[in-house]
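We modelled the chain as a single entity of 204 amino acids. Its sequence is:
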Amino acid sequence: MISTRIIVFAKAPQPGFVKTRLIPLLGAEAAAELAQQMLSNTLFQALAADIGTVELCSTPKIDDSAWQGIVLPAGIEITDQGEGDLGARLARASKRVLENNDCVLLIGTDCVEMSTTLLREAALSLHEHDAVIYCTADGGYALLGLKHYSAAPFIDMPWSTDTVASTTITRIEQLGWSLHVGQLLHDVDTPEDLKYLLPDIEAP
């Protein structure tokens, strides 16, 4: 039986800390409320996929006051993202997990299209491939699945640009790994992205 761990990378949904590009339209409080809804939805979908352990990798640490009052579902493990840029954090988490599991799925909370079906499909793809990626329309990615560890997909990455996904794909190919590219998805980061919200996740 292949052991898969889903790691959800998330910031504490506090006003001014999350969804900052939506604040001019929604205000800090409503943007944080939306972020909390998206976090809850992502964790629910990850648990419902029932393909392995679900881990919330948080920033700041879960015992920080920023997480006070945030209700998290039972059945998840909680870890700390630690120091460094996003690449360093993703690399550290994937290395830790792949030492003890066959596969890891790395996801965030910005993609409301992240579903149980999609997560199961991604996990199945790793039965036949070394890596799987679901790119987003803005040039990033919503999911990266790995069966082996390398720092190459993470270090010195041009984060927050429209070349993240293409650079990641190139580096995986340079490793000689087989890669499955899934369907194109959409993150909700800007006012223009709000049209992708699902009916049960509405802008406050």
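As a brief sanity check on the tokenised model: The longest helix spans residues 28-49. The chain has one domain: 4-196.
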